[in-house]
Amino acid sequence: MILAMFLAGSSVVTNKVLVESVPVFVASELRFVVATVILVPLLFIYEEVTKVCKKELFILFLQALTGVFLFSVCMLYGLKYTTALEGGIITSTLPAVTAICAFFILREKPSLKVLIGIGVTVIGLACIQTAGVSQVGGGVAPLIGNGLIFFAVISEALFVLLGKVSAKKHSPLVMTTFVSAIGAILFLPFAIYELRLFSFRDLSLLNIGIVVHHGLFVTVVAFILMYQAVKEIPANKAGVLTGVVPLSAALLSFTFLREPFSFGHLVGMVFVLLAICLISYGQERKIEHHSYRG
Predict the structure, then answer these.
(1) What are the TM regions of this chain, as residue ranges (predicted)?
(2) Cα 248 to chain center, whole Å?
(3) How many CB atoms lie within 10 A of CB 85?
(4) What tens-digit pLDDT sequence spans the chain (294 residues)?
(5) Most buried residue, 82, 83, 157, 184, by most Cβ within 10 Å?
(6) CA-CA distances (angstroms) from residue 160 to 8, 63, 84, 103, 142?
(7) Structural contact between residues 263 and 127, judged by C-beta atoms closer than 8 angstroms
């Protein structure tokens, strides 16, 4: 789950670079076409493809709509109006939003340890937020950009919860393949419309590399890891681990985009790591205990 969220955080930075020269829907369509081309052969090689009933297909469609379509559109358009660092920081609400949604939708009651983990995560990311507001130069229209990214956070939280539901009946590879293929279909008409003003000849080697990174690592690898994680742990604990996203985004924004990085960012990241260690340690002890009893 941690690696999956780190890869998701990397997309905040790479998307910032990509949307400067590639239309939003074209960029998203290319990402999920690449992912689907990789996943379909893997599905037929490693899985016994079974029929998916209408109800299960509808849940997979909702996952594609929230975690793929709405998340990508809101994130990419949001990054047009705000900085990559602030874009990562806005995801600071993701652990809390996921835990709240898990309580109301899945009836998961968070334990005291999870509540402490959420609190520590929010405190840490609040430190990053304060540092970001005081030092980052701001985007073209940060209010609009940050609002769109917050809506992306809500979409991602719903994506995690829906994945928890689907994981009871399907493998991570099956879910990732269906969600990616549906995502490619959702983006297609909008991408075709944007192609009126864009030519694939305008794609640079850097842009092609980012598209491959998004398709292979941010989608195929990250989705499979995330689905496997939510299958094993409660959604509210998975929500705490999503705190890796802004941590990853902030580190990579500083490293590759040279956006400001301060002591406040460092303090915030320490809090996030403490929360992750707290939750991970508890889960590891639980797994060891079950293994011993078995």
Answers:
(1) 24-45, 57-79, 85-105, 112-131, 143-161, 173-193, 205-226, 238-257, 263-281
(2) 11
(3) 29
(4) 677 777 777 777 787 788 788 898 999 999 999 999 999 999 989 887 667 888 999 999 999 999 899 988 887 788 778 776 666 666 667 777 787 788 888 877 777 777 787 787 777 767 766 665 555 455 567 678 878 888 988 998 898 889 888 988 889 999 999 999 999 999 999 999 999 888 888 889 999 999 999 999 999 998 898 888 888 877 766 666 666 666 676 677 767 766 666 777 677 777 777 776 766 555 444 434 443 334
(5) 157
(6) 13, 8, 23, 13, 27
(7) no
The residue among 11, 19, 20, 30 whose CA lies nearest residue 208 is 30
Please tell me the pTM assigned to this model. Answer: 0.76
Place of tokens 């379909």: 40
Residues 43, 172: Cα–Cα separation, whole Å:
10
User: Percentages helix, strand, coil for the chain, rounded to the nearest 5?
Assistant: 85, 0, 15
- Separation between Cα atoms, residue 28 and residue 16, nearest integer Å: 13
Q: Could you tell me if 12 and 79 are in contact, meaning their C-beta atoms sit under 8 angstroms apart?
A: yes
Residue 249, C-beta contacts closer than 8 angstroms, at least 6 positions apart = 9, 10, 12, 13, 84, 85, 87, 88, 89, 91
Is the Cα torsion angle 6, 156, 171, 231 positive or negative in sign?
positive
**Three-state secondary-structure class, residue 258:** coil
Residue that has been written with the tokens 């290319």 in this structure: 30
Residue with tokens 């994945």: 163
